[in-house]
What does this fold into?
Amino acid sequence: MAEDTESATIGVLRERAEGERRVAMTPETCRKFVAAGARVLLEHGAGVGAAFTDEAYAEAGAKVVDDASSVLAAADVLLCVQPPPADALRTMRPGATLVGLLAPQADEARGEAIRARGLLAFPLERLPRTTRAQAMDVLSSQAGMAGYKAVLIAAQLAPRFFPMLTTAAGTIRPSKVLVVGAGVAGLQAIATAKRLGAQVEGFDVRPETREQIESLGGRFLDLGVSAAGEGGYARALSEEERAEQQRRLGEHLRGVDVVVCTAAVPGRPAPKIISAAMVSGMKPGSVIVDLAAETGGNCESTRPGETIAVGGVTIDGPLNLASRGAVHASEMYARNLYNFTRLFLEDGAIVHDWNDELLARTVWPEREVAQPA
It folds into this structure.
């Protein structure tokens, strides 16, 4: 059933969160939306942080306006990176669609504004992780950039070379890099550290990640404790297993130069893997870059948004790493959003098919969907 028989207006605002440089639409995806029959309304300067000019959007078919209120009032679909503030949501068209990284339950005022305005919110962090959804998976695309940037930060902070060098002054041994967590960010971190010439190890509680780590040239760090569970998920470790794992990890860290932490559980605080005692056992000059800082950090000593020194060990807790690669991060993110939005954009009009699993399982507030007889 078509919910809007006229051409839909796709709106994009300039991101206002501190330090956010990404944009939810690029000139490339703007052109695709226009070709699909939609109108595009863009706030002036929306793409500047990612090096996309207003002129490039205009050439792609967008109408560029000076104020955000015009976009909010006209948009049938609003695309965003970070969630707009609650006050902005309250000025959107009733029943409009909102797509982005929204975390509606993390902010009471934001969630209430979405409900009060009758908005159809699609928080893409809720997107099912299926094969069909891969081209829309914003968490994976942005994690790849974060893992890459985390290693570059580590290389900058480390008081040593990453690769082995043979010089007139003697041979410099390569740095030993340990990447904790072998998800998308961790695998990208392993690949990047390997390209920089380091000796790379990867650690994950899921033993099935060994093959992925080794395929990138890393060595799988086996601590002798398996958390293999059912369906590809890790099971909870017993207290004895966890204590043994922690003991072995602490001993191993004494010989590591750089640790990049990437372990995260969507919607939950990051698991604490590196204790303060482990940090105190590391050699002076070691570096920890904790990519999980935004959700509390994998390292007990991490301070989100800060770079600190603890007993000669440098610990960095960077925030919003994907934004530091705004050009390519925006290109990937915008393609993810375009692919998702095309699920309910037909001939330029909005048609929400609630029998589509990706729409039905991503929408917030959740809808009652009739089950087939």
